[in-house]
Every structure is written in C-alpha cells, then in structure tokens.
C-alpha cells in the first residue's frame, strides 16, 4: 500500500516573517496572527488554537462570508490579524498552553492569576487545571493571598486548601495582613476565614490540653513516674481543663509550651518548634531516664501530631455561599 498524499506548507515565505518570540515557532503553516494589546504578534495555527481553546474553536468556526479569515478585519502578510485585549506578558504565558511545547512552570502568583483569567476567558481547560494546581502549591508560601484569589474565582477546593495553610499563620498576622488580593473579596468572606481559624485553634488547644491529657493517658509514659535520681521535679496542678495533673515538671512545662505554640500556629508542624528533650535536660539531666525519655517523646509526638490533624479535620470551613 502506498500513499501519494503529503502535507505541503502554503506558498508563504518565512523570510518576510519577523523573528518569532520564543518559544513560539515560526511555522509556515501559521494561518492567523494574534496581536496583543501592546502590539506583539504571534503567528500560530488556528487548528492548534482551536484544539486548546473552545473559545478560539467557536471564534474560528463562525461563518463570516465577507471575511476570508472569519474573525479578523485586518490582514498582514496574507494572514488575518486577530487583536486580543491581553498584553504580551499575559499572552506569552497563556499561549504556551496552546502550542505543542512544554507548558511554563507557574511558580509565582501574579503569573498564575494571569493564566487563570486567560484560561477561563478562552476556556483552555488544562491551563485552568495547571493554574489551580499551582494555587494549591503556592498556598504554602502565600496562604492568605491564595485564599483571597481562590474565593474571588469561586475555586472552593483551592480555597479550602488555603484555609488549612492559613492555620499556620498567627491570628494577629492574619488580621493585620496587608494583602492586595483581599480587596477582591468581601468582608464576610474574610470573616469566614477568621472564624475557621479561631475554631480550629480552640478545638486543637482544648483537645491537646484536655483533662489529664486524655488522648495519651495510658499512664505508662515516663513523665507520669517519679525520676529514679531526682525527687523534686514532680508537679500536681490544675490543667487547662480544670483537672489535677501529676507528672514530672519538665513534661508539664513542655506541654504548656506546646499549647502556646498551637494557639499561635495551629497545625501539626508547630510541634517541631517545641523541644521536649530540651525541657527534660533543663529540668534535670538524669542519665538513668534519658534513653526512655527520648523514646517516649518520639512516640508521643507522633500520637500528638495525629491528634492535631484529626482535631483540625473535625472543624469545617463554611463558604459564605453555603450559609445562604
Ligand atoms: Zn531518672
């Protein structure tokens, strides 16, 4: 079986074309010029654009008998010119999702928002998915900004992720934050975040400081037993839940520190700034207890992390739209 069909580029000289803007190829198959609002031009294939964007697909399929291009009034080098309202720095990123090349990595919020807007406007699905994934990633560094952006664009999953990251930010920092993106949401939406932040802090602190630390109260932990070499590091006091706790003083001091840190930064990672062994060594440095203390601290920390995660999960963030 043989075929005689082949794909020939149209009769158009590349020599007359301007240098392409990387990474956009100067293809002889280009059949449209997209022009940015600031005058940059992109020579691309309508079929490729139409595959990536349903808006371009609809635009190019509109029957307009008076105009060979179907979409443009202006011609340049025999190609229709389609003026777009986005500036080149936005189109550069967005159009990379429309050509068969590696898409750009979205590692800053400004670019991500630009892609988000363009992807929604031109309905470029995978650019939208990429921008949404980038939002979640960037929430680690900029949780409040991502929260505001996600709420503004009604991206609930991403907004929820951002609320979880906001738990790591002290309440005072959230309230006092100077974040431009907050102007894009209403006061009630910001209040929802603060309410969630406060609910999580209360729930976690109440649980971790619950009566006699009920979540670890097996009684077998080393801090519930008097030290072999010291007898003056034993405390009995009312804990936050109003229950008398008897334990080694260093452990009591450590748990006070944990609770304070969790109040400020309500997530399991806050434990990394609380050094239980340092409290033990400060209180006494009994060599007889040291090994078992280290082991019990390690075990307890894992349990406490899981308890914190579970307590946070028990709190719901409620969108303003779900309240109505
Ligand atoms: Zn000891």
From TrEMBL:
InterPro entries, sorted: BTB/POZ_dom, SKP1/BTB/POZ_sf
One Pfam family, short name: BTB
Region: Disordered, residue numbers: 1-28
Domain of life, source organism: Eukaryota
Positions of the BTB domain: 28-131
Name of the protein described by the UniProt record: BTB domain-containing protein
């Amino acid at each position: 079986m043989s075929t005689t069909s082949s794909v020939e580029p149209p009769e158009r000289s590349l020599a007359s074309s301007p240098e392409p803007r990387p990474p956009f190829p100067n293809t002889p198959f280009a059949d449209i010029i997209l022009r940015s609002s600031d005058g940059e031009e992109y020579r691309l294939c309508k079929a490729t654009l139409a595959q990536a964007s349903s808006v371009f697909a609809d635009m190019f399929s509109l029957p307009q008998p008076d105009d060979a291009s179907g979409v443009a009034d202006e011609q340049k080098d025999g190609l229709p010119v389609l003026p777009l309202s986005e500036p080149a720095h936005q189109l550069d990123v967005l159009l990379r999702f429309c050509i068969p090349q590696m898409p750009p990595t979205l590692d800053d919020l400004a670019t991500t928002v630009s892609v988000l807007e363009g992807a929604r406007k031109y309905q470029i699905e995978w650019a939208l998915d990429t921008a949404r994934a980038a939002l979640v990633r960037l929430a680690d560094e900029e949780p409040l900004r991502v929260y505001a952006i996600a709420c503004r664009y009604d991206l609930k999953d991403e907004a929820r992720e951002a609320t979880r990251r906001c738990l790591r930010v002290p309440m005072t920092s959230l309230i006092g934050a100077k974040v431009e993106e907050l102007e894009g949401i209403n006061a009630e939406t910001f209040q929802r975040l603060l309410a969630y932040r406060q609910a999580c802090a209360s729930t976690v602190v109440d649980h971790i400081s619950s009566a006699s630390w009920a979540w670890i109260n097996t009684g077998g932990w080393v801090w519930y037993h008097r030290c072999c070499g010291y007898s003056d590091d034993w405390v009995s006091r009312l804990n936050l839940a109003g229950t008398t706790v008897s334990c080694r003083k260093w452990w009591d001091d450590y748990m006070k520190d944990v609770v304070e840190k969790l109040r400020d930064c309500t997530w399991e990672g806050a434990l990394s700034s609380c050094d239980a062994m340092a409290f033990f060594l400060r209180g006494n440095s009994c060599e007889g207890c040291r090994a078992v203390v280290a082991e019990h601290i390690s075990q307890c920390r894992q349990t406490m992390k899981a308890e914190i995660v579970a307590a946070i999960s028990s709190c719901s963030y409620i969108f303003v739209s779900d309240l109505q």
